[in-house]
Amino acid sequence: MPKKWSRIFPGQAWQVAEARHFVAALLEDEGSGLVEDAVLVVGELAANAVRHTRSGWYRGWFLVVVGFSDDLVRIQVIDQGGDEEPQVRSVSRPVEEGGRGLLLVAACAKDWGVKHRPGGRCVWADLARVSG
Fold first, then answer.
1. Rounded to whole angstroms, how far apart are CA atoms 17 and 24?
2. Helix (H, G, I), strand (E, B) or coil at 44
3. Residues 64-84, mean pLDDT to the nearest whole number
4. What is the pTM of this model?
5. N or C: lower Cβ tally within 10 Å for the chain?
6. How far, CA to CA in Å, does 23 sit from each of 5, 19, 29, 105?
7. Buried b (16+ CB within 10 A) or exposed e, 34-44
8. Model confidence at 95, in pLDDT bands (50, 70, 90)?
């Protein structure tokens, strides 16, 4: 299997599910816990790209990159940038509907971060592969 796979998606909300299916298919031979975490992570990052960046504008797009090493799977979502910096938000009330996405990503990932790129940014998360 190649060490890195990528696919570009139109910046539409329904494409988030397509990004989850793409990642699940790439990880079908991995443990179920890793697949579940990876699907959750890419879903949150792709949804944020569509909702909070220019990727969700007319003719927008986002790119999903999945990289493999011996001990990690790195998921990257490259978007077209926006006015706000991605950050874990404090959710003060349990009834609030938004703001938990990056909190979930941080809980699933061994590490995560943001890299700025010309015309956008990349939000990435490293998930530990379980050797078995």
1. 11
2. helix
3. 93
4. 0.86
5. C
6. 9, 6, 12, 15
7. bbebbbbbbbb
8. very low
Selection from 70, 75, 80 nearest residue 111 by Cα: 75
Detail the DSSP E strand segments found in 18-101.
61-68, 72-79
> What per-residue string of b and e applies to 52-67 under the rule 16 or more CB within 10 Å gives b?
bbbbbeeebbbbbbbb
| Token duo for residue 114 | 């943001």
Looking at residue 59, what is its pLDDT?
95
| H helix or E strand, kind and range, residue 113 | strand 111-117
Q: pLDDT digits over 10-58, tens only?
A: 999 999 999 999 999 999 999 889 999 999 999 999 999 999 999 999 9
128 burial via Cβ count (<10 Å: 0-12, 13-18, 19+): middle
